[in-house]
Automatic annotation (TrEMBL):
This is Transporter substrate-binding domain-containing protein. Residues 1-25 form the signal peptide. One of its GO terms (cellular component) is periplasmic space. It is found in: Periplasm. It comes from Rhizobium ruizarguesonis. The keyword Signal applies. The lineage of its organism: Bacteria, Pseudomonadati, Pseudomonadota, Alphaproteobacteria, Hyphomicrobiales. Residues 36-264 form the Solute-binding protein family 3/N-terminal domain. SUPFAM superfamilies: Periplasmic binding protein-like II.
Length: 273
């Protein structure tokens, strides 16, 4: 009788272990391979993700810390693949990485091809040199040179503004594109461009790094959200949302917001449907 009870107990333990293992496997997204989560990022978008010093191989930033924390929940390490912003989603499509994290806004046209979760609320702003006094609103960009990061929605915003200026009989902007956010800000500093369109997070960080040299004359009324993008998969997006919600519930995201001096309510976002 004792032997029979032992057999039953042992069989139950094995069954429980198998069930637990299966549950854990179900929660592990398919884009984590051999304990590694590969992330595509531009690595030039402080304070989200950036190299603190020229030549640094390790990236820093709020988004970097957050994705590292997500990977930890899956028992995985992170590997960051750095490329120009406009090449991030094509790299995701070609399976060079499993996730894109690079201050990329949630946009309907992107959601047609990829799944995403929103993780940070933000607004676009105009940035100009501190000495500039004749730019207060987007309409004041008429006839001026504007620098924007290539492949971003700022390009589309600039094109839409130019179309409106033209329709109103006003001079259009000259729009120049650059591969990274640092290069865009540099055009403002050297006087090659009058303004740029970027996000409030980036502008605030650059302002802290360049005290007294740049300013924000205008904040757009609409609010956007940064997202984490993956290839379309119902199971994977569920696993990603579960892991992200776990970071919010545990208070880890609140700690990261405080670490990077970001608004405490920035993670109060509405998820795309």
């Amino acid at each position: 009788m004792k032997l029979s009870i032992f057999k039953v107990t042992f069989a139950y333990a094995v069954a429980l272990a198998v069930a637990t293992s299966s549950a854990e496997a179900a929660d592990l997204p398919s884009f984590v391979h051999d304990g590694v989560l590969t992330i595509c990022t531009a690595g030039d978008f402080p304070p989200m993700g950036f190299a603190e010093n020229p030549g640094d191989k390790e990236l820093s930033g709020y988004e970097i810390d957050m994705v590292d924390a997500l990977a930890k929940q899956w028992g995985a390490k992170t590997d960051y693949v750095v490329s120009e912003f406009k090449g991030l989603l094509p790299s995701l499509e070609s399976d060079r990485c499993g996730l894109v994290a690079s201050g990329m806004l949630i946009k309907p046209e992107r959601l047609e091809h990829y799944d995403a979760i929103a993780h940070f609320r933000t607004s676009p702003v105009l940035v100009v040199a501190a000495s500039t006094s004749d730019i207060k609103t987007p309409d004041d960009l008429s006839g001026k040179i504007v620098a924007v990061e290539a492949g971003t929605n700022y390009e589309k915003d600039a094109a839409a503004l130019n179309a409106r200026l033209k329709a109103e009989g006003k001079a259009e902007m000259t729009v120049q594109t650059y591969p990274g956010a640092s290069a865009v800000i540099q055009q403002i500093l050297i006087g090659r461009a009058a303004a740029t369109i970027t996000q409030d997070t980036t502008a605030a960080y650059r302002g802290a790094q360049l005290p007294g040299r740049i300013t924000i004359p205008y904040t757009y009324p609409e609010a956007d959200s940064y997202g984490l993008y993956i290839r379309k998969s119902p199971g994977d997006i569920k696993a990603l949302r579960t892991a992200y919600d776990g970071l919010k519930t545990s208070g880890e995201l609140a700690q990261l917001l405080k670490k990077w001096n970001l608004p405490a309510n920035a993670t109060d976002v509405e998820q795309p449907k």
